[in-house]
Amino acid sequence: MKLDVIKLDGGAAGSVDLTDEIFDLEPRADILHRVVRWQRNKAQAGTHKVKTRSEVSYSTKKIYRQKGTGGARHGSRKAPIFRKGGIYKGPTPRSHAHDLPKKVRALGLRMALSAKAKTGSLVIIENVDTDGKTKTLASQVKALGWKRALIIDGASVNEGFAQAARNIEGLDVLPSMGANVYDILKRDTLVITKAGVEALEARLK
Q: Taking the domain 2-45+99-204, which CATH number applies?
C-alpha cells in the first residue's frame, strides 16, 4: 500500500510504499487482546503483601485457659478469626507475567499497525528534525491536528525532538525497537518517520 509523506510543517514530501504483510492485515481482536494482556501483566509490580499469623505483632501466650470458660478453645491472638490477627491465604509478592509465543507478539504488532492504517490514523512524516523548542513543536502539532499521538522514530529518537516533545500533553515518542501494541492502540494517531518505517519493516519481516 502507498501513503503520502508529510513534513512537520504540514508540507508534502512525496510518498512511501508500505509492506502489505505488515500494514495491510485484517486486525483480529483476539490476537490484540492476548498481546495487550501479556504486556500489562508483565508490567504489573506484583508487590502486594499481607501479614500472616507468623508475622503479626502479638504475644505467643495462650490467651485464656483451655477449659471452664464456656467459650471456644483458643491458643493465640494471632489466629485469623481475631481482629488484627494474621491474614489467611492473602496475597504475597509474585510475578504476574506469563509466556506468549514470539510469533503471536510479532503478529499482534503487525495487526496494531494495520488497524491504524485501516482507520486512517496512520501518518508518515519525513523526519522529526526540529530546533528543540517546545513552543515551535506544539504549534506544529496543533496545526496538524494531533491530540493524542504516538511518534515512532528510527533506531534512536532525535534528541532535540524528544526534548521538545517532553512537555507536550498527549504526545509520546518511541524508537522503533520500543514500538508495542499497547502504546499504539492507546493513542488516536500513530505517526511514523520514514526511518521508523524502514526499521519496523526490517524488524517484522
A: 3.40.1370.10
pLDDT digits (tens, 9 = 90+) for 26-62: 999 999 999 999 999 999 999 999 999 999 998 888 9
Secondary-structure percent of the chain, ordered helix, strand, coil, rounded to 5:
35, 15, 50
- What is the widest separation between alpha-carbon atoms in the chain? 93
The residue written with cell numbers 493465640 in the block is 76
- Specify which residues 191 forms β-bridges with: 123, 151
Query: Radius of gyration (Cα) for the chain, nearest Å?
Result: 27
Length of the chain counted residue by residue: 205
pTM: 0.82
Q: Is pLDDT above 90 for 185?
A: yes
Pairing relation of β-strands 12-17 and 2-6? Answer: antiparallel
Distances (CA, A) of 105 to 52, 53, 100, 146, 175: 39, 42, 7, 28, 18
Helix spans in 101-192 (H): 102-118, 134-144, 159-165, 181-186
For 186, the grid coordinates are: 492507546
What is the residue extent of each domain of the chain?
A: 2-45+99-204, 50-90
Spatial distance between the Cα atoms of 42 and 30, rounded to a whole number of angstroms: 18
- Residue 151 parent element (H or E): strand 149-152
Cα-based distances in Å from 7 to 13, 50, 151:
6, 54, 13
Dihedral over alpha carbons 67, 69, 74, 75 (to 10 degrees): -60
